[in-house]
Specification:
With 298 residues, the chain is mainly β. The chain starts with a helix and ends with a strand. The N terminus is likely disordered. It contains 2 helices and 21 strands. The longest helix is centred in the first third of the chain and has 20 residues. A hairpin with a 4-residue loop joins strand 3 and strand 4. The strands form 2 sheets. It has a 15-stranded mixed β-sheet that branches. A 6-stranded antiparallel β-sheet has the order 9-10-2-1-14-11, with no helix packed on it. 8% of the residues lie in helices and 46% in strands.
Length: 298
């Protein structure tokens, strides 16, 4: 005999599970960087609630760029040719345990971002920049990057700060690690070309990490690196990552990236996939000899 009460209870439970799943925040993009003062900053943008995934599908890229005075965080909505983001400046205070954080308008010109026909894109400012404030290692700062006026759905940025030994956590259920989760990390990289150190990298003291990392060095253009093959994007297997060194060849030249710490997770040697654009030049700031950036998406 069919137990209608049990079926009713089961259906009610299923509806509740589905509702909670839709309400759970969805991580759209993660990135991290380290300032010259050895302050690690981790970024995570989440859709809250995640029921309507339209905004997540539109976001076609983003990441971080590091300069002497700030970390530049940017994201892109390719379908509407909109980009947005902010600068974040983090300074240690005299007590050694407190950090002064300032969120500022994004200062990177569109020509320096990976945008097709930058002049046709529009920049949006976050709904409201948080005021300058003091935080401690392990603190998280959250604020809205975008709010859908029709649905009220938000894209919320969570910024976690850390120095030296840091505690980091992420939301959601645990799952198995996949190759797509692998990130490259470049800390204080020194670029050696045909056995000679590129002087522009001799004093670089920042760090970046992401599924895709890129380096621009004026004499040889721009290099984008990945641990995962992406032949559809033009990546080629040109080298290897071994511990704190990445070695590869391109255009008849041999390159080494020597970093402070492991470049890839794990304790094995990994293939390095490279996309080299030797003709790339920044549309502005043409006197820039070296910069680097990272992204969670190609």
């Amino acid at each position: 005999m069919v137990n209608l009460k049990r079926i009713s209870q089961w259906l009610t439970l299923c509806c509740l599970v589905c509702t909670l799943a839709k309400a759970r925040p969805l991580t759209v993009m993660k990135a991290s960087a380290t300032t010259k003062a050895k302050i690690h900053v981790q970024f995570e943008a989440r859709l809250e609630p995640s029921g309507d995934l339209t905004q997540a599908r539109r976001l076609g890229g983003g990441g971080v760029m590091v300069s002497n005075h700030a970390i530049h965080r940017y994201m892109q909505d390719r379908s509407h040719k909109i980009y947005f983001g902010y600068d974040i400046a983090v300074e240690p205070l005299e007590d050694g345990s407190t950090l002064r954080v300032s969120i500022l308008p994004l200062s990177v010109e569109p020509e320096r971002l990976p945008l097709e026909n930058p002049a046709t894109w529009k920049k949006l400012a976050p709904p409201r920049y948080p005021p300058p404030q003091s935080v401690r290692s392990g603190d998280t700062l959250a604020f809205d990057l975008f709010v859908n006026p029709e649905t009220g759905q938000k894209l919320v940025e969570y910024v976690l700060f850390g120095r030296n030994h840091r505690r980091e956590t992420v939301p959601g259920p645990a799952r198995d690690f996949t190759v797509l989760d692998a990130e490259l990390r470049l800390r204080a990289p020194r670029l050696v070309v045909n056995g000679t150190l590129a002087e522009a990298t001799a004093s670089v003291d920042t760090a970046i990490s992401g599924a895709f990392v890129k380096l621009y060095w004026a004499p040889k253009g721009q290099f984008t690196f990945s641990l995962v093959p992406h032949p559809e994007l033009g990546f080629r297997k040109l080298g290897e990552v071994r511990g704190s060194t990445a070695a590869f060849e391109s255009g008849g030249d041999s390159y080494e990236l020597n970093c402070d710490g492991k470049i890839a997770p794990g304790y094995a040697a990994f293939n390095l996939y490279v996309l080299h654009d030797p003709d790339y030049r920044p549309p502005i700031y043409r006197d820039t000899e070296f910069f680097m950036g990272a992204s969670g998406k190609p």
